[in-house]
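Course exercise 7: structure representation. Students receive a sequence record and must write out the corresponding structure in token form. The form below is the worked example handed out in class, using ATP phosphoribosyltransferase (519 residues). Read each field label carefully; the graders check that inputs and outputs are placed in the correct fields and that the protein name is recorded exactly as given.

STUDENT ID: A-19
EXERCISE PROTEIN: ATP phosphoribosyltransferase
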Amino acid sequence: MEELWQVLRPDEQIELQLRKLYTQHDFQPYHLNNFEEYSMYQQNYNFLRNSSIITFTGNDGRTMALKPDVTLSIAKNTPSGEARKVYYVEDVYRHDRQAGEYQKIYQIGLEIIDEITWKDQLEVLKLAWKSLAQVGEGTLDLSHMGILTGICDRFPEEDRPKVLDCLRDKSSHGIDELTNKAGLSEEEKLNLAKLVRLSGDFETKYQRAKVLLAAYPKAQAGLEELKELYEALQQEELSDKIRLRLDFSIINDADYYSGLLFQGFIKEARETILYGGRYDRLMHRQGKSQGAIGFGMKLNHVGQKLPADTQTSKYLNIALPKGRMGDAVYQLFTQAGVASEDVFEDNRKLIFCDEENKLRFFLVKPSDVAIYVEHGAADIGVVGKDILLETKAAVIEFLDLHMGECRLAVAAHNEFQEDFSRPLRVSTKYPQITREYYESIGRSVELIHLHGSIELAPLLGLSDVIVDIVETGTTLKENDLTVIQEIAPSSARLIINHATWRFKQERIQKVIEKVRQQL
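STUDENT ANSWER:
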């Protein structure tokens, strides 16, 4: 048997260990079909975190889909009132936004469908902890829908999605704008800005959150539920490879989730590998009377090792945009006492090391900064808000540096007269932003994707209008162009990798606070 065990890949070994663990807790194996009717996923699109779905037409004419999620299928196929306690090992298919291709995700997970008790929640959290510990060193982060909705209740309904965005991105500058708009008191504004940034060791941050959430009864109730679960977990004999954290950036759709939320990270993966929570509302939306709780964990990264040079490195890796913006940000870092001067002396290098402060800088194309950070090659980076809006990079947008301030706008020739009888021809290097903007106002467009010299397009008749960033407007004026609509403001933002934040938070916070004092 030992020889056979050694033949198995690391992910296969962990799968077998977890199967045994779940079976010992009376979970039964559950197997699903590879295909489901597309309509089910279409009706629950937000639950899938807006993932694209692979569809095809079946022999009977129905539109079918390769399953992008397991939980939805289990919920759908469980009769109302029936209790189930199951685990699964399944492949799901999701769209990789950066690669532009679909990927197969190998995952294992479990679900309890029943009248959910406090003991059920504790058991699921314990198993999530043990599952992560099988994979490597990491963190299990807790949040609660009661906390999120308690905060959102202080804002007009139309602004609540933006409030959740600010919590997810830890964007204190974003929440400041919304609290000003909502007319909240100065004390409440300050408390909410602190809440947005709050995360870390559960016991320490719980005490802080309790003070900051004192005026929000619904949020307080959710926090106390997390505290009870935390105290119960401390009584268990669980691996010390996993740290328990409190973090309000864990956001799931309020139409589906109803209580406990949690996510898991390991150092090697550089991304979230475990998602879980209580989803009673999903069951009720499907006409089921039960509650439900569970989690799924990716096994794709099992056995993956960090590159040798970063595995034991104490460097903080920083991606800066090439050009004036990168130079300005580096100057800001030196003024803040974060970085040493003259690190960029030899400009032919690709990586610049600040040995004194244990920082590694690298200059990349501005549009690539978010990619480096999202994938964990860089811990933090500086990128324009326009690029974040275009790429929708899954990063923490922590700080507005108020540098490179400009605006995304629609511009046209001074004599432009719009013809509503046909699609508007639009040239831009921001196709995603442009498409979303014109969809929001119900205007059909023909997009022409360019990579530079955007202002030429209307002058040569290539397009009717352009969508581009506008700083002073001088270039537009010199070419007889004018702004006809503004889409969004943009400036340089300091961004952080989600997984890195869990493992280098103290170092990153020290850097950010010094930089913030210079703004």
